[in-house]
User: Which sequence fits this backbone?
């Protein structure tokens, strides 16, 4: 297996953290998203949706979409379990993963895309719309703080893929979208400190 | 089990089609999204993210996010299989489901939200941004047509959750976001005719 990766983008980081938590070593090839190398005819033949990461399996097939790749790896390497041990637990972890992904992570991505110089030549930017997405990110930080409450992890009492998505989303929201983490959000800060101190955070 | 549903919204329709394809009968309660009944304190106590659909399990727990609910139902009622029989097949079906969901369905939702009168009082609208999202929907129709090619279904040779998401996304793109299906897209038209003629399409 080989991972097509880009070190500075958030979705590839999700997969790298997942792989590190599983204790796996998988070869990686860098594809420069910033200069559009993911959209060459050669790359589009492998992943026609054009994003990163994707993987090349040993039979030459290509699998894309971060969470789909994680699910494949979870099947091959069930321990440590990161996506649920039975269908009920899988469903609740998926609920949390999706809430973070669709409500926080996607808003951080839109905030970045509509306000960053990096996207000036790539999309029609609406900076005022980007500003509303920053507000959404700030509101989602508050929401997540309330949802974490006294729980150690996003989906309950152990580290799961929902923590990986939230860790990447929060870091991207702060660093790329420019939304500070309000120190009054003590549950979020405690959780963020905890997940950021795991060795996988550096992946 | 009970489903909290709203007949006129696309995510609840995804779940209804899934339930119909499984041959299940599950009681439903209508919650009027249009007048914000999903955001009353009573409803937010059940689903703090505020969306629909969500389900109440027999033990009183609430599970939200359409695909997470589908995964739970798939575990309880494995046949007909709609999400993959092993982790490899699950991963490829999830790849297709996510491509349609993140690239087409989400764009149709943004197009609708930023141009419809229904959202005037609910969000700060950017109609010009909504117009770019309509273009994205039209481009995604073309992309999907090319990806379907001669395949009978989105993820390959049988009907899966990826077809459900695509069916709901295409119908929502046409009817709510106002993006016509170009009749030149013959693969998309053939596939759409096929999924629309299944009894579940009326769910």
Assistant:
């Amino acid at each position: 297996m080989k991972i097509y990766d880009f070190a500075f983008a958030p979705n590839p980081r999700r997969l790298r953290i997942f792989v590190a938590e599983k204790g796996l070593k998988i070869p990686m090839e860098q594809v420069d998203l910033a200069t559009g190398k993911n959209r060459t005819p050669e790359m589009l033949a492998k992943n026609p949706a054009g994003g990163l990461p994707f993987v090349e399996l040993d039979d030459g097939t290509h699998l894309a979409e971060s969470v789909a790749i994680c699910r494949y790896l979870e099947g091959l390497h069930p321990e440590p379990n990161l996506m649920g041990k039975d269908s009920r637990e899988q469903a609740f972890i998926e609920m949390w993963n999706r809430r973070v992904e669709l409500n926080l992570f996607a808003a951080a991505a839109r905030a970045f895309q509509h306000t960053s110089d990096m996207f000036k030549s790539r999309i029609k930017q609406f900076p005022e719309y980007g500003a509303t997405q920053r507000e959404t990110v700030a509101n989602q930080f508050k929401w997540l703080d309330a949802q974490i409450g006294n729980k150690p992890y996003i989906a309950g009492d152990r580290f799961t893929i929902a923590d990986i998505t939230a860790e990447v989303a929060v870091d991207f929201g702060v660093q790329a979208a420019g939304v500070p983490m309000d120190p009054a959000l003590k549950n979020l800060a405690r959780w963020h400190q905890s997940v950021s101190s795991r060795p996988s955070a550096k992946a």
Summary: Chain B is about 55% helix and 5% strand. Residues 87-115 of chain B form the longest helix (29 residues).
